[in-house]
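Researcher: Predict the fold of Fe-S cluster assembly scaffold SufA.
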Amino acid sequence: MKHKNLDHIAYNDLEWQGFTLTISAEKKIFSLINKNPEIKGLWLGIKKSGCAGFKYIVDLIQNPSSQDLKFSFQYVTLFVSLQAMPFIDGTQIDYVNEGLNQHFKFNNPKAQNSCGCGESFSIE
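Model: Structure tokens for Fe-S cluster assembly scaffold SufA follow.
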């Protein structure tokens, strides 16, 4: 189901597949959230950005919104913006080392295009 409008999505719109985390991603998230006992988990959303259309937003979160969807894994919890869910449902999140850079990598089966620098993606 395609949702182009981020403002009109409700919990009952779809059944979500959720996310998968690689061992590397779960270890990194675990180390990030254990630095501060007030952190409840990692928050994931999207915003319009870049040449392809959308950009992932990742942040540590202390007070998740009642609108955020909660995904629990063995050692960590991931909160996802309800508005972002139709665009990123089914994504595998990895944490990779590429040269001198380390970052989260999103393997999104719904992403059809991405920009050359890898900063943004689009869903048709």
